[in-house]
Each structure stands twice: as C-alpha cells, then as structure tokens.
Amino acid sequence: MSTLYDVVVVGAGPAGSAAAITAARGGSKVALIERGIYPGAKSVYGGVMYLKVLDRIVPTWREEIPFERWITKRHTMVLDGSTSVTVSYHDDGWGRHPYNGVTCLRSNFDSWFASKAQLEGVDLITATTVVDVKFHSGSNPSVMGVTLSNSDQTVGCRSVVLAEGALSPLADRLGLSSPSKNHHLTLGVKEVLKLDPSTIDERFGVPHDQGVDIEILGGLSPLVGGGFLYTNRDTVSVGVIISLESLKHHQVRAEYALEQIKHHPSIEPFIKDSMQVEYLAHLIPEGGWRDRGTLMKQGVYVTGEAASSTLALGIWLEGINYAIEMGAIAGEHATRYSEGKYGDEASRQYEDDIKRSFVGKNLKKLRFAPEVVLSNPIQRTLPILLNKTASSIFTVTDPLPKSGLIKTLYRAIKEANVAVVPTIKALLKTFWSFK
Ligand SMILES: Cc1cc2nc3c(=O)[nH]c(=O)nc-3n(C[C@H](O)[C@H](O)[C@H](O)COP(=O)(O)OP(=O)(O)OC[C@H]3O[C@@H](n4cnc5c(N)ncnc54)[C@H](O)[C@@H]3O)c2cc1C
User: Fold this and answer.
1) Is residue 163 lining ligand 1, measured as CB closer than 6 Å?
2) How far does residue 178's CA lie from ligand 1's centre (Å)?
3) Which segments of the chain belong to CATH 3.30.9.90?
4) Which of 157, 158, 283, 288 lies in disulfide reach of 338, CB 3.0 to 4.6 Å?
5) Which CATH code of 3.90.78.10, 3.50.50.60, 3.40.50.1480, 3.20.20.120 fits the domain covering 4-60+105-180+290-367?
6) Is 299 in the pocket of ligand 1 (CB under 6 A)?
7) Is 188's C-beta closer than 6 angstroms to any atom of ligand 1?
8) Looking at beta carbons, which pairs linking 246-252 to residues 24 or more positions away fall under 8 Å?
9) pTM of this prediction exceeds 0.70
10) Range(s) within the chain of domains with CATH label 3.50.50.60
11) For 288-320, what is each residue's pLDDT tens digit?
C-alpha cells in the first residue's frame, strides 16, 4: 500500500474539485485523481456556468476565473421549419457584480478550480484512471483504498468520493447507480466555431466582455431534444442535445441534427463564415432526482453528474453549479466519515444534506419535468402551434380583414393537425411539472 489518504476523490471535474476543497478544509489528507492529462482535458459541456454557488468555497472567484464573457442576454428560441419564435431577456446588470451566467472553457475552468484544491494542500494526480475501489473484509466492510490504471499498488484511504461524471462505471460496479439511469441518457454534440471577437459583438449585439445564451427548442424533427448557441470571446459554441432513444429509433446520426440546427435560417446568420476549431460529444444523464441512485455506502460517496445532478430542461441547462454544490457537501461528509464521526446514519445524513441544498430542492421539485420536456406535445406540437400563431398574427393579410385571436388559434390548431384534448392535457401537465 502506498500513501494513506483520508479521502480519495475520483475525477477533477467541478464536483471533484469542490469535494477535494471542502474535505481538505475539514482537515483531511486528500488525493484528487484525474484520468485526463490535466483537469478539463476530457471535459465536454455547452458553455455557460452559474457560479454564485462558489461564494462559500472560493469567494474571490469573480476576480479569478478564466472567463470568456458575462451573459447579459438570454433567448429561448422555438424553431419550426424555417421560422422561429424567440423570447428574449436582456439585463445589462448581469454584466456587473454579482453577475449571473458566464461562459468559460472547461479546460481553463477545471484547471483553475483544481489549482484551488491544490492550494488547500490536496495532492492532484493526473493521467491515471481509478479502476477499482477496495474494501476491508468483514461483516460491515469499509473502504480500504483505490487501484489505479498505471500502478499495481492500492492508494489507501478511509473514504472515497466518486465524482466521475455521466457514465459512472465505478458507481455502476459498486451497485450505487439507479437502474433506470441509462434509459434517460441524452447525447450532446457540439462544435466550437472561431469568429472575430468584433463580429461576435456585432452579430449578437453585445460589448466585448458580454455574451448571449440562446437555448433552442424544436427544429430537430424527427429527433427529440434541444439545442444551444453560446458566445465565447472569439468563438461560439453551437450544439444539440438529443435523446439516445430517438437517435436509435430513427437511425439518424447526431451530426445530422447539428447540421439541421446550424443551417436553420434563424441560426445560420450568427455563425456564417466561421471556422470549426473543435468537435465534441458527451452523454448527459437527464433523469435528475429520480435517477440519483444510492448516494452513499460503506464510505463511498457518489456526487455530481454521477448522481444525475444536471438540470436539463430546455429553458435551463445547469449542471456545473449543481455538481459544485453536491461535491462540496460530499467532501464535508467524506471527511467526517474518515474521522469515524459517523455510524450507520452516515448515508442518511448525506442524503438529508443534499435534500436541504438547492440541488435537492430544485431537482426534487422538477422531478417530472425532464420527461415532459422530451414529450411529443412539447417537442412537436408547441413549436408548430407557436410558429403558426405568430405567423398568423404578424402576416398582414390585406385586402382580407384580420382574424381575431380565437380564430387565429383555431386555424393554427387545425393547420398543425393538433389533437386538442391531449394537447391541453399535456400543457396542464407541463405547468404542473414546473409549478
Ligand atoms: C453537451 C453538454 C452541454 C452541457 N452544457 C452545460 C452548460 O452549458 N452549463 C452547465 O452548467 N452544465 C452543462 N452541462 C452539464 C455539465 O457538463 C455537467 O453537469 C458537469 O460537467 C458535471 O460535473 P461533474 O464534476 O459531476 O462531472 P464531469 O464534469 O464529467 O467530471 C468528471 C471528471 O472525472 C474524470 N474521471 C472520470 N472517471 C474517472 C476515473 N475512473 N478516474 C479518474 N478520473 C475520472 C473525468 O475525466 C472528468 O474530468 C452540459 C453537458 C453536456 C454533455
């Protein structure tokens, strides 16, 4: 056995670094192990972070993070055919303290965050994969250590935090993952496109340090999912997030869906004449609260996206903030566990603290929303209805008289070939899921 740690954290993503920081501050000797050659080397996400959650862990984050642009405009764009309806919100105040969303590149952010853990005395070990967790034998086995892909030795520890992200093979192997998690996977495919910073400012209507977040619904037919377009300093990120089941069912490749979105007349003008600099793909477990699985067993804490922490609901795509908060809580608990401060109640205490945090409260409140967002009425009917209604309202019909709102809606419903009763039921279910 090599060095003995109190806590080993698997994965230096947002959840892992947060866990390492709070565990070290609790007095633990901590190893943070990352399979990439540096933290962020293997990370994929859309591009916008909501970092107020860092106030309690790294209060100086606003002055320190390697940011691209502070988000001051949020649009939700509903696409249909070659048309779109957009709801826009602009808040110049989001460009100043305390800010709201920010675009950051993961390779920069994850490295910065892990360096904060190192400043707390955490040993960061990169370019090696944790392949197993070993337990002491006996009737109530506890953690003995972890084994690595590039060493025969076991790294000894008293507690392990699994912050290994979406696929979570270790959590699966230890029987901690929810059996239904793999039924709620979506695939995110994203391109990073280079553009001159002044072209981005001009096209998106923002000054150089401010940016835009566009969430996209519809426009992917026959697939089920959504899309996004975000501004960085001298690149934009455009991507789609598609249900794996619909990809399989329609035998369509994800790249096709991304091309469909990129060539939509409402998206293309933002990205034309750009040069592709990156192409990335990653899975997202979208089951949320109902797929969190077993959060703790025998000194092993599951956290972040390995516990299905991402909130992916069309109008919101938030995962980094949820992973950080959940990781920070896991680190605190792992420290107490390694000090022998917990008995049988350890698992319940961790679950209770997660439930009391904004992560548990939001994920629980919105637990039925993921399936509603991916349902037929939201994916197909809503985009058609909204676009047809907008077209009827804004298209001037002279010399014919204007239709009233009821007639316009009735015509849109008829043209869209929508079954009224199921649609009303679906809309009520949507309101109830987001209540
Ligand atoms: C296409 C896409 C778009 C997204 N857009 C957004 C967005 O705009 N905003 C947002 O907030 N969230 C977004 N998310 C979600 C966000 O990426 C996740 O919520 C977040 O990354 C979860 O953090 P994590 O630390 O739990 O896991 P991860 O970020 O996945 O980190 C896990 C880390 O563990 C390492 N690792 C895994 N296994 C091992 C092992 N066995 N040994 C050693 N290291 C290991 C990995 O290399 C990785 O560094 C998006 C996700 C995708 C896929």
Assistant:
1) yes
2) 18
3) 183-285
4) 158
5) 3.50.50.60
6) no
7) yes
8) 246/222, 247/187, 247/223, 250/222, 250/223, 252/222, 252/223
9) yes
10) 4-60+105-180+290-367
11) 999 999 999 999 999 999 999 999 887 889 999
Instruction: Name every residue whose Cβ is closer than 8 Å to that of residue 424 and which is 6 or more positions away in sequence.
Output: none
Question: Is the beta carbon of 219 within 6 A of some atom in ligand 1?
Answer: no
Q: How far is the CA of 320 from the centre of ligand 1 (A)?
A: 8
The CATH code of domain 183-285 reads: 3.30.9.90
Would you say 166 and 14 are in contact if contact means Cβ atoms under 8 Å apart?
A: no
Say which amino acid occupies 334. A
Task: Kindly state if the Cβ of 318 falls inside 6 Å of ligand 1.
Answer: yes
Q: Under a CB-based contact definition with an 8 Å cutoff, are residues 225 and 241 in contact?
A: yes
Each residue of 122-174: pLDDT tens digit? 999 999 999 999 999 988 788 999 999 999 889 999 999 999 999 999 999 99
